[in-house]
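Hey everyone, long-time lurker, first post.

I ran two proteins through the pipeline my lab uses and got sequence/structure pairs for each. Pasting them in order. The first:
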Amino acid sequence: MGDSITAGNTNALVNVGANNSYFDILGCKDDSPITYVANLGIRRDTSAQVLARVPDAIALSPRQVLILAGANDIITGADSETINNLDAIRTELEGEGIRAVFGTLPPSDIYPAETIAMNAQITEWASINSAFVIDYWPEIADSDGHYEPGFSPDGIHPSPEASRIMAEAATDWLKANPLP
């Protein structure tokens, strides 16, 4: 679940394509640690909108849901509610016996400081609440919070190569933390 980073982006300017989103790459890999059920990413969704769609995920009866939300909260100025929304998503999913796995946000060439701050909040929240978090940041961000060169066509969305790196990070985390 998430926004356009999860959904993939069919915008010709970005030219990522849904089959090149990190989640679709993860789900379609030969060695994927997940059983691909559905991509519930929707362009421009904020964490509040992802929260409102949790029943859609529950209806699919998954054992776990990967959630990447918060980038559009930063863009729209709604980032003061992100952590509360992620916590509510976790509560709803876990209340149904579904493991919620969150992700740090990928870098942003437009909002680097805000994205660094949001990732710090996500990491702190996860640590305090024993929430599961995949860190997508290290391999695709520079030290200033921007994408590494060539890893974003527009400064917001990951390139196909960055999406592949994110899928590998998810693969590594999920294999190290298998479902019981």
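...and the second, right after it:
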Amino acid sequence: MRQPAGVILAGGQSTRMGGGDKGLLCLGDRPLLDRVIDRFQPQVCELALNANGNPGRFVEFGLPVVADSIDGFAGPLAGVLAGLDWAALQGHTHIVTAAADTPFFPCDLVPRLLDAAQDKPIALAATPDPKRGMARHPTFGLWPVALKDDLRQALRDGVRKVVQWTDRHGAATAEFSADPFDPFFNVNTPEDMTRAEGLLR
């Protein structure tokens, strides 16, 4: 498999942060999105941003911006589809996605997902969870461009939960440590931002 392209998912509505773009909020002295790009760019062959609305607000980051093609904020799967459609036009066979509000995700995310996939078409990141054993993080995954039309139809049929679709096709799990904290911790609320500030130190 060739090195995948990367797609940062920033198409959510950020309701728990009062709306707007979480990725543009500053963590320390830099936007969240800037920190995500720094972690992601070295791991992929090309990088794009999935976001809706006016793409001009992201111009400083120098990334192509791809919007959802499914109307009505259909969730992360719509962002995955937008990324797959973009990747197909660039000639890529796979993408890896990462969330724009998760500044501490692993620097070896992509190789670990590739290693986990083996004979499965999709791989999702996961960390230990005291209640569930392993908790999957469905916005952090490896996705084949070959499934883009299948995903498009699933979204048209009303599928919104990521694992509802991935479980149809078989998804491998790449397991990451949650010590000293879960690297997939994401900034959803002002309290989360305060916690993230503490993790920078």
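Reply from user beta_strand_b:
Welcome! Quick read of the second one: Residues 14-18 have pLDDT under 50 and may be disordered. The first strand starts at residue 5 and ends at 9.
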